[in-house]
Specification:
This protein is an alpha/beta fold. It contains 37 helices and 38 strands.
Amino acid sequence: MAPSSLRLLILEDLPDDAELVVRQLRAAGFEPSWRRVDTEADFVAALGNDLDLILADYHLPGFDARRALQHLVDRQLDVPFIIVSGAVGETAAVAGMKAGASDYVKKDDLGRLGALVERELRAATERKTARLEREAAQATLQRLAAIVETSSDAIFGLDLDWKITSWNHGAELLYGYSAVEAIGQHVRILVPPDLAEPRSDYSVQLQTGVPIPPFETVRLHRSGRRIDVSVAVSPLRDREGGLIGRSAIVRDISDRKRADHAIRESEERYRRIVETAFEGVWVIDTENKTTLVNLQMAEMLGYRIDEMLGRPATEFMDAQSQAEFQSNADQRKQVGRLPRHEFRFRRKDGSELWTVIDSITMLDATAQYAGSLAMVSDLTERRKAAAELLERTSLYEALVTAQSELGQILILTEGSQPIYINDAFVRLTGFSAEELKRLDSLFDLVPADQQLSLPSDLEQRLQGERTRSFETTILAKDGRRIELEGTDLRFQAGGRTLVFTLAQDVTDRKAARRALEHQATHDSLTGLPNRRLIRERIESLSGRPAPAPFTVISLGLDHFREVNDTFGHRAGDLLLQQVALRLKAQTSNGQVMARLTGDTFAALLPGVGDSDADRESTALLQAMEEPFEVEGQALDIGASVGVATFPDGGKDADELLRHADIAMSAAKTSRGTVVQYHPELERGGASRLALMAELRRAIHDNRLLLHYQPLVDLRTGRLKRFETLVRWEDPRHGVIPPMEFIPFAEKTRLIRPLTRWVLRSALRQWRSWHDAGRSFPMAVNISMRDLIDPAFPEEIDELIREAGADPHQLVLEITEGVIMTEPERVLQILARLKRTGVRLAVDDFGTGYSSLAYLHRLPVDEIKIDKSFISAMAGDVSKSNIVRAAVDLGHSLRLEVVAEGIEDMQTWDLLTALGCDVAQGYYISRPMSAAAAEEWMKGWSGQAQLAA
C-alpha cells in the first residue's frame, strides 16, 4: 500500500526530536511533508487551511502548546493538534486537552503515535464532512426562505387550529394585512362569510398526507374587497411524520378572470358580427373540419348550420376543387392573408356554387396554426350573367341584357371611357349620365391614393382573359368612397373592342369585413394592436432577406393593481385607455404600439438598434412620469421597461417578445427603470436581480463607501492624486466585490445613480481634505451609459458647484473600449466635459483595436497603460517594447502617461527608465478608506520610503 501523504507542522525546539517523530510516522505508513518551527512568530506564519496535522512540544522557550492552541481558535482552524512532550505531567496534559488539543503522547511512548494520528485524521475528516453538510443545509434553507419571501404568490402557514403562523410579502400585497397583523389570526379573516371554509374534509385529506390540489375560490381583502384566487394546501409534518399544520399557496387570478370575461364578451361581439355579415363566414380547424359557419354561408350551399358543423370542408367540393384545396394546404398555414381567388363548391342539391374567397390564417395562444377563416361571396349569378353576355355579339343585345337588376352596368371603350351607364350606377355615384360620359376615363373617379395601380389594371383589362373579376374604389359626387366588385367582359361590337362591366356596391360588406378583421387584431379596450398584430409585424421585419436591426420594448405599469384595488376596475380601464393614448403619441411612422395583457404594453421600433434603444425606451418611461387624472383623481403610477434588440436580443417574434418581457420583469425589481435583455437574466439571474434591488436601496440610503488608491510621481515619489473605488459592505451579504455588482449595474439604468453617488462622495472628500490643507485631485471611473447621456456634462458641472470644488481637481477616467464603442458620439460628450474644466484620462490604454486612429482627436490629458502590459513587462521584452511605445506616443501628443499595476521595485525602476510619469499599484499602496489614506499621507515620504 502506498504511504499516505501528510502535510505536517512540528512545533519543537530540538531538531533531533522532530526527526524522531517524522521517522515514527513514516514507520506507521505516512509520508509527511513537514516543517519545524520553534518560535511563536514562525508558528503563526505557518498556519493555514492546507495543514493536515500539528505536533507540538508542550514547553518551548518563550512559547507553549496552550498559546499555540489559542492561535488556532482565533483563526477558526480545525487542524488536529497532538502534544508530543517528554516531560509533560498529567495536570499539564489535561490543561492542554481543555485548551483544544486532540490528544497527547510522551516522547518515550512514540509507538502509539501512528494509530493516534490515523484516528485524529479520520475524526477531522468526519468533522469537515459534517460541517459542509450543515453549511449546505443552511444555504438551502436560506434559498428556500428567500424564494418564499420574494414570491409574488401569497404563501403562509397554518397550525392545527387553522391559525396563521407565517406570512410572506406576497400575502401582505394580496390581502392587505401586514405580518404582524395576520400572524395569530384565524384563517377565517380571509374567507367571505358566505363560504363555509375551511372545510372539515380538507382536514381529513391533509391528515392522510394527501395535499389539496389547487382550487378556485374567493377570498377577502382587508378592505372587504372580494378577490378571485387559486388556493393549494399541503400538510406540514414533524420529523416523526405527525401533522403539525398546513401551508397554503394563494394566487390572485382576478386579472385572468377579467380576461376570461373580456374574451367571452369578445366572442359574443364576434358571433354577432358573423351572424349579421353580408357575406358567408366559414371557419375550419387544423384538420379542415368546419367549426363555424353563419346562416348566409349555409344558405348558399343549401344546408342547415348544424348539418355543416364538424364535417370536412372537402365534403362540399367536387374532385377538382378538392385537389385545388389540398394543393393550397401549406399556403393556408402561413401567417397572414391568402390571395383573393375564385372557388367552386357543390351545393346540397348537386349544383355548382361559384364564389370569391378572402381567407386569413388563425393562430392559437402559442402562435401556432389553428385553422382558417374565410369570407365567401356568391359569384354564381354574376358569372351566369357574364356567360350569357359572352354569347351575344351586338351592342343592342348587350344593352338589352344590361337593363336587368343585377347591379351597376357600364359599357366602356378600350380606354375605359363610358359610352353606356345604367340608372343604378347613376343613382350610386350621384353624377348624371351626361357628366359621366364626358369623362376621359372612368378611372378619373378613382381616388388619388389608388392611381398608381391604374396602368397595370388597364393592361390586364385589355390584354387578359375575356372575362376578369376586379375590385376597385371610386369617389361619388359628394366625396363618398364607394367600393365596387365586379366582372369585366371584352366583346366585339360595331367593329371595335368594348368592355362590358357588371359591378356591385360592396362598401357596407367590406366595412363589416374590416370590422371583423380589426376585432381579431386589436385590443377592444384601448384600440391598440394586440399581440397577434405586433407579432406579425415583428415576423415581417425579421423574415426579410437582409433584416436591419430593430427593437422590441415591453412596458409594464408599476402600480396598476393598487389602482384597481383602490378605485375599482372602471378606473383601471379608464387609466389603461389614457396610457394607450399617451404611448401612442410617442410613436412615429412605422412604429407599432400594442397592448399585450392587462397592464403590459409593447412597442416595435423599426430601424432602432442598441445605440438608440436606451434613448427611445427612456422617452417611453418619461411619458409615464406625468400623473394621470382619472375621475378626478391624480394617479402617479410609473412604469418599468424591458428592451430586446434584434438580432442579439432574439431571432424571431416569440423570442424577442419573451426576452423583452423577461427584461421588463427584471426592471420591476427596482421600479421605474429600463433593463436591456441579456442572457444572465435567464441563467439563475434572480439572485443578481435581488442584489440590484439591494444596491438601489444602498445608494438611496448612502450605505456605500469609497476607497482611495494613491498615484505618485515616478521621478520624485510625490503624491499626485487618488483614484476613487466604490465598495459595498452589506449587513446581510458582507463585503460584495465590485465585479459582482458593477457589471450588472452597467447593464441597467442603475449605473447612472451609482456614478453620481461616487462623484458626489469623491468631491465631498476632496472638499474635506482641501479644507484640512491637503488638496489632491480625485479620479473617478465613468461608464458607457454616462458617456452617451447628453445631460452628463451639465450634471458634472452641477456636482462640482455643489461641492465648491475646483474642476481641475476632478479627473474622469474612461476605458478605451468605451470610447471605441461609439467614437463620434463619445467625442462630442468628451468635448463638452472638457469645457467644464475637468481633466480626462484614457484608462486601460493599449487594449483597444483602433485607439491610435482616434487618440489624437480625443480632448484628453493623460493615458493609463493597462496593467496587463505592466505586470508582464519585467520578463517579456515584447511587453516592455509596447510600454515604451505607449510612453513615447503619449509624450508626442503632450499627454501625461500613467502606469497601473506596479507590484515591485524592479517594475518601478524599469518604468522610470522608460520615462513614464506617474505610477499606481500595490507596491505603493492598496486601496484604503479615507481615514487610512490620511494616515498614509502622514507617513508617505516618496522614493525614500520605497527604497527602504
